[in-house]
Design a protein that fits this description.
Elements lengths: L7 H18 L3 H17 L9 H6 L3 H10 L3 H14 L6 H6 L2 H8 L10 H17 L4 H17 L3 H11 L14 H11 L5 H17 L3 H11 L2 H10 L3 H14 L12 H8 L4 H12 L7 H5 L10 H8 L1 H15 L15 H5 L4 H13 L4 H9 L7 H14 L9 H6 L8 H14 L6 H12 L4 H14 L6 H13 L10 H11 L9 H6 L7 H13 L6 H12 L17 H13 L9 H14 L3 H17 L2 H13 L7 H11 L4 H14 L6 H13 L4 H14 L6 E2 L3 E2 L4 E2 L1 H13 L23 E2 L1 E5 L9 E7 L12 E8 L2 E2 L4 E5 L4 E3 L6 E7 L3
Parallel strand pairs: 5-11
Antiparallel strand pairs: 1-4, 2-3, 5-8, 6-7, 6-9, 10-11
Helix pairs in contact: 1-2, 2-5, 4-5, 5-7, 8-9, 8-10, 9-10, 11-12, 12-13, 13-14, 13-15, 15-16, 19-20, 20-22, 20-41, 22-24, 23-24, 24-26, 26-28, 27-28, 27-29, 28-30, 29-30, 30-32, 30-42, 32-35, 33-35, 35-36, 35-37, 36-37, 37-39, 38-39, 39-41, 40-41
GO biological process, one term: proteasome-mediated ubiquitin-dependent protein catabolic process
Family: Belongs to the proteasome subunit S2 family.
GO molecular function, one term: enzyme regulator activity
């Protein structure tokens, strides 16, 4: 019925359409075909706004049933198909009503129609067809052969009309992504590949692999070798990575790919005939990492060493209190130990400090007691980090001392110096091998852990031949834990069967002993899990083997295994499983569930501490929940939406969870925001740093250091100084405050411990392993970090890396160019060429990049060979 405000043109259109409909209803076949052609012309040429239905469709909607009746009466096949085309279009959206949508009549009549030039009906028609194809495919897979020709036409239309994202979505839904390849061309491959790569975190493992392979193939096809390398590393397929290297003939691109692989510590086998093979091997081995870092330090003018006191800035604290002085008088050994760690963290990689390297520096080592000397000496390794040529000599003299702790610290320092560096001379192996079988457990610990750090991620059989006997012959729980962690570090992410079977057999042998209750046994399981880092479903056999253990050790072990296997995957199903573990408290056999209200854990905690002091070992019923909470964060990192949701859930855990979960919550929150001090995270952790429970506050304080590691964040530093005053009479908390201050100023603000790199596309398994060791240790801090095993904090050396953008020319010499730096903006699926960064500042390289920042060239003189401007990037001068 015509509306009152309709124009004369609208009334004329209605009259014209009514006449054409009458002709379609007419029995005269000669009139039907021209009428349908005219209707088709009117519909296709109609124009409308973005928010309204085209007028011909709106005016024809009352005649939808009429057209269907006419279709049944038409005998001519050709005319019948013409009529089916019109019905298919009328069935779209509100025109056909709910019945048409439920019966998928748009698709049905499209298949009955001519199926030619379907794109002429417009994007909305194609979108409706795609939705109904997906529904039909899920209902009846047998219709695949009928639908495939139509699907191919739709993909071709989408790829030619800037609707590639719709095509990708439809093909992923029907699991026929391989049909996309033939329609990708030079103008669309970047947009399609970027979208598909971003979808990987939201699909199951098999489909993710299929998507990444397609993306890698397209990048290779269009000559984007560096981008192909990144997706091949995500696939963790070494043969594919080796093929990309061997097929690339451009020596400059080869060097750039070597820098990307070296940042990930990904093993690459180069062909013998590769040009400049030695130079590329040096890049892959990070041989120049220290020299490039020294160049950065000189450019930023931060070569002068810093003392711990300059980090604490205690003169800014209230003068009458002077917590540093009180702290030293109250617990001088612990404060000296904290100063040793802070000194190592702050001056990491610079090769000089004010405590140990000056003349008579060994006096500082002797200001520590027993096991404190081990960590104090090992801090030399951090000072000379990555400097294999110059760092071994200053450490070597400590190998000839008679004190076993100093000697063990020197052995550990040797391993730390070689961390992330591959050297043909193998100095770490030559110097540490003899001490692996030493009867002195202290020396053995230093040598074994040192070897693990020195060869992290290499999976070298000769190193494992030394470490596996250390696992098999381990006597105490601590020795077994250190040997397992070392094996896990060396074989990280490789699913090494020898390592997993050796650790599993030792665990099974201990399943009925009291040793299983030791906190060190969690580290044994962590060593086993690191072997499967990022391997997802590769843990099924090992997970089944852990079923033989009693609760809560079984759940603790399985959570730690999932934490490593699914680290950074964002797998929603695994997170749900882990949250289920967090919510259910395990009732131990000796505990009889009562109908009466259970006493709060805060009342029972002192009794447990008393039992610990007496030497009794009791199962902590909440340990499994704590491990699951940490595992949730490990799985969620790397995917922004999942991380935000995880942080919200962790907030609820902190308010309503059991005490064990509350103690693990700061560790989990920090893991989701490593070296990324967002204000809401700082506020949450600062609140928990004032908690009445000692372990909650200690963990929260240390985690403030984790989220601010290497950022020099002024707000965080001020907050830590206030915490030093607040906890001046609590030695444990004050120790953690000092560690957090040292981590915040890590490498004088030039280093990061975030495992995510290359614009957060890749997760470094060695960095992740280095982070998890201290965080899992802090689940029982009194037994480990605050006990004799504080040397486990040096595992963070495996995660340390400069947070730089260093630009090199084609001869690998540093050059300074202008770059714009700002917060990264997600451009996936956005139309046109949107801005990739916001809040832009212009700098000259080298520059420091914070987590979440992105850089782009501000000059037209050079072109970049690296897909993302972070890390070490080679620039190629454009021809004039």
């Amino acid at each position: 019925m015509p509306l009152q405000d309709e124009s004369e043109e609208d009334k004329e259109l209605q009259d014209e359409l009514r006449v054409l409909v009458d002709k379609v209803k007419d029995s005269d076949v000669k009139l039907i075909s021209p009428a349908l052609e005219m209707l088709k012309f009117i519909i296709r040429t109609s124009t409308t706004s973005m928010t309204s239905v085209p007028k011909p469709l709106k005016y024809l909607s009352p005649y939808y049933g009429t057209f269907k009746e006419a279709y049944e009466n038409i005998k001519d096949v050709k005319v019948k198909k013409q009529c089916a085309d019109i019905i298919s279009v009328l069935a779209m959206g509100p025109t056909g009503g709910d019945t048409a949508r439920e019966k998928r009549e748009c698709l049905r009549y499209c298949l009955l129609g001519t199926m030619t030039n379907i794109g002429d009906w417009g994007h909305e028609y194609i979108r409706q067809l795609e939705a109904e194809i997906v529904e039909q495919w899920s209902v009846c897979a047998r219709s695949a052969n009928v639908l495939l020709p139509l699907i191919k036409d739709i993909i071709e239309f989408d790829c030619k009309h800037h609707a590639e994202i719709q095509a990708c979505d439809m093909l992923m839904e029907i699991d026929r992504l391989e049909l996309l390849s033939e329609h990708i061309d030079n103008s669309t491959y970047q947009r399609i590949c970027l979208y598909l790569a971003s979808c990987v975190k939201f699909v199951e493992n098999i489909e993710a692999t299929k998507i990444l392979r397609l993306v890698t193939d397209q990048y290779i096809r269009f000559g984007e070798n560096t981008k192909a390398l990144i997706t091949a590393i995500q696939l963790n397929e070494r043969q594919l990575v080796n093929k990309i290297f061997s097929d690339c003939k451009d020596p400059i691109v080869l060097r750039q790919m070597a820098f990307i692989a070296a940042r990930q510590l990904f093993p690459v086998e180069l062909d013998a005939q590769v040009t400049d093979r030695e130079e590329i091997l040096n890049i892959l081995g990070n041989s120049n990492l220290n020299s490039h870092f020294q160049t950065l330090a000189r450019e930023l003018d931060i070569m002068d060493p810093k003392s711990p006191e300059e980090v604490y800035k205690s003169w800014l604290e209230p003068v009458p209190l002077r917590p540093a002085v009180l702290g030293e008088n109250m617990d001088s050994a612990r404060q000296n130990l904290a100063a040793s760690f802070v000194n190592g963290f702050v001056n990491a990689g610079f090769g000089c400090d004010k405590l140990i390297t000056p003349e008579g520096g060994n006096r500082w080592i002797y200001r520590n007691k027993d096991h404190g000397m081990l960590s104090a000496t090992a801090s030399l390794g951090l000072l000379h980090l990555w400097d294999v040529d110059g760092g071994l000599t200053p450490i070597d003299k400590y190998l000839y001392t008679n004190d076993e702790h100093i000697k063990a610290g020197a052995l550990l320092a040797l391993g730390i110096v070689n961390c992330r560096i591959r050297n043909d001379c193998d100095p770490a192996l030559a110097l540490l091998a003899d001490f692996v079988t030493n009867t002195n457990p202290t020396l053995q610990t230093g040598a074994v852990f040192g070897l693990g750090l020195a060869y992290a991620g290499t999976n070298r059989p000769d190193v494992l031949c030394l470490l596996l006997p250390a696992v098999e012959n381990a006597v105490g729980a601590e020795s077994l834990a250190v040997a397992s962690l070392a094996c896990g570090l060396v074989s990280v992410g490789t699913c090494n069967a020898d390592v997993s079977s050796a650790i599993l057999s030792k665990l099974v042998d201990s399943r009925d002993s009291e040793a299983l209750k030791s906190s060190y046994m969690r580290l044994v399981v962590l060593g086993l899990g690191m072997c499967y880092m990022g391997c997802k479903d590769g843990t099924e056999a090992t997970n089944a083997a852990l079923e033989v253990f009693a609760e809560p050790f079984k759940t603790i072990s399985q959570c730690l295994l999932k934490m490593c296997a699914y680290a950074g995957t964002g797998d929603v199903l695994i997170i749900q499983e882990l949250l289920h573990n967090v919510s259910e408290r395990i009732v131990l056999p000796e505990e009889k569930p009562s109908k009466l209200p259970q006493p709060t854990e805060s009342k029972t905690a002192p009794l447990k501490e008393k039992d610990k002091r007496k030497g009794k070992r009791e199962w902590d019923a909440g340990a499994a929940q704590a491990a699951a909470a940490l595992a949730v964060a490990s799985v969620a990192i790397g995917e922004e939406t999942g991380t935000e949701m995880c942080q919200r859930i962790l907030g609820h855990m902190g308010r309503y969870g059991d005490l064990a979960v509350r103690r693990a919550m700061p560790l989990a929150v920090a893991l989701t925001s490593v070296s990324r001090p967002h204000l809401p995270i700082i506020d949450v952790l600062t609140k928990y740093a004032h908690d009445s429970d000692e372990e909650v506050s200690c963990n929260a304080i240390f985690c403030l250091g984790i989220i601010g590691a290497g950022t020099n964040n002024a707000r965080l530093s001020a907050g830590l100084r206030q915490l030093a005053v607040f906890h001046m009479r609590n030695p444990s908390q004050l120790f953690m405050v000092r560690l957090a201050q040292g981590l915040t100023h890590l490498g004088k603000g030039t280093l990061t411990i975030s495992p995510l790199h290359t614009d957060r596309q890749l997760l470094d398994p060695c960095s992740m392993a280095g982070l998890l060791i201290p965080l899992v240790s802090l689940l029982d801090m009194h037994a480990l970090i605050l006990g004799r095993s504080h040397y486990l904090l040096y595992a963070l050396a495996a995660a340390m890396h400069p947070r730089w953008l260093l630009t090199l020319d084609e001869t690998l010499q540093p050059i300074s160019v202008s770059v714009r730096v700002g917060q990264a903006v997600d451009t996936v699926g956005k139309a046109g060429t949107p801005k990739t960064i916001a809040g832009i500042h212009t700098h000259s390289t080298p520059v420091l990049l914070a987590a979440g920042e992105r850089a782009e060239l501000a000059t037209d003189q050079y072109e970049q060979l690296c897909p993302t401007l972070d890390g070490i990037c080679i620039l190629k001068k454009k021809p004039e």
